[in-house]
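Example record used in the benchmark description.
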Amino acid sequence: MKAIVTAPVCALLAAPTRQSTLVDEALYGMVVEILEEPSPGWYRVRTHYRYEGFVRGESLLIGDEAASAWESQPKKVIRNKNFCDVLSAPKVQGWILTNLPRGAVVCPVCPPTDGWQQVRLADGRTGFLPEGILSEHYTVPLSSDEGILRQALVDAAMLYRGTHYRWGGKSPMGIDCSGLVSMAYMLCGILIYRDADIREGFPIHEIPMEAVKPGDLLFFPGHVAMYIGDGRYCHSTAKAGDNGFAVGSLIPGDVSFREDLWKRITRAGTYF
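Model output (structure tokens):
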């Protein structure tokens, strides 16, 4: 059985209880597979990027028919703002149907008019949002040109500047290290492993540190960052003073150099 995520940000928990640890977040419009119902109102689900967790039923629209119909429709993704309001009319005075974060997907209804895009939501309602907030919803890499794709990955990661740290987070409301890099890759049409590791069956493979280029990943024990060029990397960290998105340096002496991380790099990985 499949279901559509209908909460703007849907918590995936380690166990079927509200007090359980957050392990991931699914975003509005994503389709998940229901694996079991361990207790009334709770479902264990698998995301399209093969991550599992427990969610509350009120965050889902359950049913294979609805999910298949939704999957078959063209999509756009919220990309160019942290959040956006979906309004009842193509004007700022429209009332708010819902609020969606970066990474949420909607279905465009018709060509945009006067800067407004009409969209269909998962529950069948239609609304409007500014066209410029939306981007293409890539399910394959957005370019076959390596240089273009590498720059796109860096640009996507940098969209999360200012986001605070949230364990298991994957939205502008809060994001963790692997949430940051996996969302950057997802926005560019590539699904990588959700956690801070290189796993067989996912498209990141190990490379020597000296071969690292922008868009590649740096791995530490329980942590991951994206190399962005010129000896710098971006990551989301719970370290006091940063508490979220930060840019660090691999060059000793730089003001953003962290020796504790530099000494603990275990390996580097690339999609290319």
